[in-house]
Structure formats: structure tokens, C-alpha cells
Amino acid sequence: MHAELDDKHLERAVIAENAVRISAGLEDAEDLISDLERSLNTAATEICGVSAEDIDAVAALEAVAFPREKAATREAFEYRIANFGEYFFAARHNGKIVGIIDGAPSNRKYIMDDLYKADGEFDKDGETLLIYGLAVHPDYREGGIAERLMNALLEYAARNSKKRAALTTEKELIGFYEKLGYKNHGISSSTIGNTVEFDLEQTL
User: Fold this and answer.
1) d(CA 156, CA 87)
2) Contact 168/132 with Cβ under 8 angstroms?
3) Are 149 and 176 in contact, with CB atoms under 8 Å apart?
4) CB 118 within 8 A of CB 79
5) Dihedral sign, CA of 33, 37, 38, 39?
6) For residue range 62-105, what is the model confidence (pLDDT) as tens digits?
7) What b-and-e string marks burial along 60-73, b requiring 16 or more CB atoms within 10 Å of the CB?
8) How far apart are the first and last CA of the chain?
9) Domains of the chain
């Protein structure tokens, strides 16, 4: 165990101060490489806020992550960042935006289609955080970035006196959100993208 060695013995064993020890079983080499790449990508990714200068990159990622009929417009992002940008977070890998999550405080219980418009209604004093979207670039999925984005937004909302969070999602993603603490409350009245959506919520 190199953690038990002093500097003299570490130097003699040619173990650098920033060495990383990996314990692997009898796994396929490609699987190991893939796992390491995902871990390194996640470690090199920071969660931070966004500004008006990021709108082009945000809109481009949205277009990659969602079909056209469900993707938010550039105008919608401009409005959201300008009016409640503190509820908009991004994951940056070496400076490049590879994930986004955004929401808005409201007194509505769930998201309705009109809230997706560029000037969708919001109430800064509302106790509910309505989450509009969570997107991660396909090349960076399965590395925990989506979970980190969600945690950052929910923690911020809780610190700012929001009592609950709500979102809509397709049936295939209900299990993912349930692992993050959400409860399924049935089919949503939202029909954006002509898909069946479900309302999910959790207490903060």
C-alpha cells in the first residue's frame, strides 16, 4: 500500500506524489479504457453558472440532445438567462459546455406547455422550482454529469427557500429521475412534442 510509504520509500519505488492506483479484475481491456475515460472526463468537468455569452453553446447542445419539436429555442434561453439565470447551470469540460440544466421559480404545481415559450411565466417568490430541461452531450453521458447538474440546481433552490421541484419526462426516463429522488404523479397535461409526458416531483 503506497499510502503507508514515506517520501523516501515512495521515491525509491518510483511512485509520484500524484499517482493514481487502479485495482482491476479480469475485464476486457476496452471496457477498462472506456471506464477510465468516463471517470477522467467527469473529474475534468466543473459545474458552474452561465451568462449571455454562453447562449450559442447552450442552444447548440439543446439541438443535439433533443428532437427539434421539443428543443428550447435560442430566444427562450435568452429570456431564461436574463430573467432567472441563477437557476441555470452548465457542465464544462475543458471550457466546453457539455451539459445544461435550467429551471424557474413558480407558484404553479407542474409545468404547462405555455411555460416553454420564450417569455414563459415565472415568479421569483414562488416556492416551486419548475425544471425545464436537463441535457448532456451524447459523448459525455453515463459519467454522472446529469446527476451533478441536478444536485447543483436542487441545492441552490433549497438554499433559496424553494420547497419542491417538479419536471415532466417521458416514460423511459422515469426510472432515472426516481433514482434522484423524484416521485411519479402520473400523465402530464403537457403535450409538447406530441409525446406522452409524466409529472414528477420531489420535496426539497
Assistant:
1) 8
2) no
3) no
4) yes
5) positive
6) 999 988 888 888 998 999 999 999 999 999 998 999 999 999 99
7) ebbeebeeeebbbe
8) 42
9) 1-43 (no CATH), 48-203 (3.40.630.30)
